[in-house]
Amino acid sequence: MVGRIRRHTDLDVYQLAFQAATKIYKLSATLPIYERYSLTDQIRRSSRSVCANIAEAWRKRRYKAAFINRLNNAEAEASETQVWLEFCLKCEYIEETAIKDLIQIYDNVIGKLVNMIRAPEKWSI
């Protein structure tokens, strides 16, 4: 599995998370101006943090505990992003279909992260 993966950007989970963060960035630009320093900032930060933590985990994969820790952080940030998406849905800031699609993508990201956490030896150097 790891043999063909040379960089964190080759990981399916990273690619999914990055695509979702990019969508969130574009959608969050449509949020009300009064949400700029709260919801907009938070959802952008957490969605980007998923990607950053996956990248850090990949570089720390020779140390099982550090690898798992970073993946746990990525999982937590993905869950936080889902919470912010739920706020966008309840406040009717963004179209329901777009929100539900993103929540589903993050469910998929979380599932992939959990699988990596459960079998870190598959990813270690």
From the spread of the alpha carbons, the general shape counts as elongated
- Spell out the helices and strands N to C: HHHH
CATH class category label: Mainly Alpha
CATH topology: de novo design (two linked rop proteins)
Tell me about the largest β-sheet: none
Known CATH architecture: Up-down Bundle
The helix fraction, in percent, is over 70%
Number of helices: 4
How many separate structural domains?
Answer: 1
What structural class do helix, strand and pairing data support? mainly alpha
Give the uncertain stretches in residue-range form: none
The CATH homologous superfamily is called 23S rRNA-intervening sequence
Determine the N-to-C terminus distance: 12 Å
DSSP strand (E) fraction?
under 5%
The counted number of beta strands is 0
> What is the rounded Rg?
15 Å
Mean pLDDT: 95
The gist of it:
The chain is mainly α.
